[in-house]
Design a protein that fits this description.
By secondary structure, this protein is an all-alpha fold. It has 11 helices and no strands. Helix 2 packs across helix 3 and helix 8 runs antiparallel to helix 9. The longest helix is centred in the first third of the chain and has 51 residues. The protein is globular and about 85 Å long. The protein starts with about 20 loop residues before the first helix and ends with a helix. The relative contact order is 0.09.
């Protein structure tokens, strides 16, 4: 080297960590932790998929418990034993559901001949339009029909296997329904005891905070189910009245479809509205379909600008973008069940995390899971006021 300086070499004991740029070290630390988190989430999702026969009924039972728990609690306050209150609420709920399904099936059966006749007339009009306007020949239309029939005959084996798969799916559905009912009974009858048993596995120094966070999450779930049911009733009644006014057949089944689909936010309402418009188009023509489309859009605007901000926004405190993204992820991960359970899960996590972050000295008895409409509280106003005052004094 010049100026008589000797080259400097690293000793064998010198750490190479100091030679790595700080930005690269921080990025690597974030990267491997991110990989660990993603791997853990993948394992959890894989386990949920493998145990979906149990996880889905358990999740639906939680939703049903959140829906029925206020009624059970009201009966308990009237000095009715909890076991008897649970039985009364479940029997009453099953009776209402059975009566509704029976009424819908009867209405659908009564309206099916009229729908079939109107569908035949619509197909005849389409055929006349193809011949007179598009100038297709009768032989071409008949050939297209024959090709469709031949396709069905050639794929009879596939159709048969799908029918068998559908039969097995129906069996799985009935099994899941029985399991859901069984779990719901125990959640309503002894949910407090079950939750207390689970809390015994939480370390004592954080048990109270976790207990309160879990109660906040269930309170948010109760508020979500209650608000969603109210929105669903308004949607079904509004669209049902509109369909009745323009004399679209199958009003009751379509209104019931609107009610059920409303439990899948945003996407469910769109699907139900599309079905209603298509039925109006097939049965009553293009003008009636446009009127029904206007009715559906008006009801959806009422829901999105008034009902959801007033009810769902207060209940779950979720941004619409978060709702849409959660439903999309739920569809990818769990299909229909994932879409149904995505938003409630997000609401529970949101309420629980906000409780852990903001409630400094919570007490489980202060949380009323059946009447706490906020579900996900902010920081205690008194504590926030004290913190603000302290900050002003420090600034001064």
């Amino acid at each position: 080297m010049t100026n008589g300086q000797q080259p400097q070499f690293l000793g064998e004991d010198t750490s190479t960590t100091t030679l790595v740029p700080k930005g690269l070290r921080v990025s690597a630390a974030f990267a491997w932790r991110f990989i660990v988190v993603i791997a853990a989430l993948y394992v959890i999702i894989w386990l949920i998929g493998r145990l979906s026969v149990v996880v889905v009924p358990l999740s639906i039972a939680l939703l049903l418990s959140a829906l029925l728990a206020p009624a059970v609690g009201h009966l308990v306050q009237m000095k009715v034993p909890r076991g008897l209150a649970t039985a009364l609420v479940l029997v009453g709920g099953l009776a209402v559901l059975g009566g509704l399904l029976t009424f819908v099936i009867i209405q659908f059966t009564d309206g099916l001949p009229q729908l079939t006749q109107q569908l035949h007339n619509s197909l005849t009009q389409i055929q006349n339009w193809l011949i007179n306007v598009v100038h297709l020949r009768q032989e071409q239309i008949q050939q297209a029909i024959d090709n469709a029939i031949g396709f069905l005959q050639n794929n009879q084996a596939v159709i048969t296997s799908n029918a068998l798969t559908t039969a097995s799916t129906v069996g799985e559905f009935l099994t899941g329904a029985l399991l859901t009912l069984f779990i719901t009974i125990f959640f309503l009858a002894s949910g407090e005891a079950i939750w207390g048993f689970l809390m015994k596995g939480v370390p004592g120094n954080v048990r109270r905070r976790v207990d309160v966070a879990g109660r906040r999450g269930f309170a948010s779930l109760v508020s979500y189910v209650r608000a969603t049911a109210a929105v669903a009733v308004v949607d079904a009644v509004g669209i049902g009245i509109g369909l009745w006014i323009v004399r679209v057949p199958l009003v009751i089944p379509l209104a019931t479809l609107v009610f059920l689909s409303a439990f899948v936010p945003i996407i469910g309402a769109v699907v139900a509205g599309v079905v209603a418009v298509l039925v109006a188009l097939v049965t009553n023509g293009f003008v009636t379909a446009l009127i029904v489309l206007g009715i559906v859009v008006a009801v959806m605007q009422l829901e999105s600008h008034i009902l959801q901000p007033l009810l769902l926004g207060r209940a779950v405190k979720l941004h619409p973008l978060a709702v849409v993204l959660s439903i999309s992820v739920g569809i990818v991960v769990g299909s229909i069940a994932g879409a149904l359970l995505a938003v409630p899960l997000l609401a529970v996590l949101n309420a629980g995390i906000r409780s852990l972050l903001h409630e400094r000295d919570p007490h489980p008895e202060d949380v009323d899971v059946l009447h706490d409409m906020e579900g996900a509280p902010n920081a205690d106003p008194e504590e926030a006021k004290e913190d603000t005052g302290a900050g002003v004094e420090e600034a001064g």
